[in-house]
Amino acid sequence: MPAKKAAAPPKPTYAVMVAESIKALNDRTGSSVQAISKHVKAQYHIDINKPALVKAIKKGVEAGDLVQIKASYKLNKLKKAPAAAKPKKASTVTTKKKAAPKAALKKATTTSSRKAALKPRKAISKTTKRTSTTSTKKAAARKAAPKKTTSKRRAAAKK
Q1: Residue 58 and residue 1: Cα distance in Å, rounded?
Q2: What distances in angstroms separate CA 106 from CA 34, 99, 100, one per listed residue?
Q3: What is the pTM of this model?
Q4: Which one, 3, 85, 105, 124, has least CB within 10 Å?
Q5: What is the DSSP string of 52-120?
Q6: Residue 47 Cα distances to 18, 19, 124, angstroms
Q7: Rounded Cα–Cα distance for residues 25 and 67 (Å)
Q8: pLDDT per residue over 84-114, tens digit each?
Q9: Quick one: pLDDT at residue 84?
Q10: Integer Cα distance of 20 and 5 in angstroms
Q11: Which residue ranges does the record assign to the H15 domain (predicted)?
Q12: Which residues fall within 8 angstroms of residue 70, CB to CB, at 6 or more apart?
């Protein structure tokens, strides 16, 4: 009987392979799709399904795991791992009760500040209307003056 070959370890998903290859390449400006695919092919010894690779990269950008810089991609340093979440404390219930009145005060102050901010804007808009009407009258007078001079020149040219 022929001996059975040992099953090859299952390959990781494209998302995992992309993240590992970007981390391994460690390029300052980010890694291109071509560089990522070359690294994945060399590291995992598989044929690359390019549409699946590109789709995994795009999903990583949408999820916030990757950051796109022009045609290159970097790992998002700002996104924290979910395993490092802080444990919940019992004192958070009391802090929520204290935070609610502050929110009500903020709403009251913002509405009063909005009313105060609207009053000066109305005064400013009235003054701008006055200046705009005077400037249009001056512009109309300037346009009328050259028309008269051009008609005199035409009359002088005809003689």
Answers
A1: 48
A2: 51, 11, 10
A3: 0.47
A4: 3
A5: HHHHHHHHHHHHTSEEEETTEEEE-SSSPPGGGPPPP-TTHHHHHHHHHHHHHHHHHHHHHHHHHHHHH
A6: 14, 18, 68
A7: 15
A8: 444 455 555 555 555 555 555 555 555 555 5
A9: 44
A10: 28
A11: 10-77
A12: 30
Confidence band of 11 (pLDDT split at 50, 70, 90): confident
Q: How far apart are CA 155 and CA 150, in angstroms?
A: 9
**DSSP 8-class letter at 32:** E
Q: Which domains does the chain have, with CATH numbers?
A: 14-78 (1.10.10.10)
What would the pLDDT profile of 19-28 be if each residue is shown by its tens digit? 999 999 999 9
Instruction: Report helix, strand or coil for 31.
Output: strand
The tokens describing 139, both together, are 């512009």
CB atoms under 10 Å from CB of 97, counted, come to 8
Q: Which residue has the tokens 């001996």?
A: 3
Partners of 74 in the β-ladder: 67
Query: Which of 17-26, 58-67, 122-131 comes out lowest in average pLDDT?
Result: 122-131
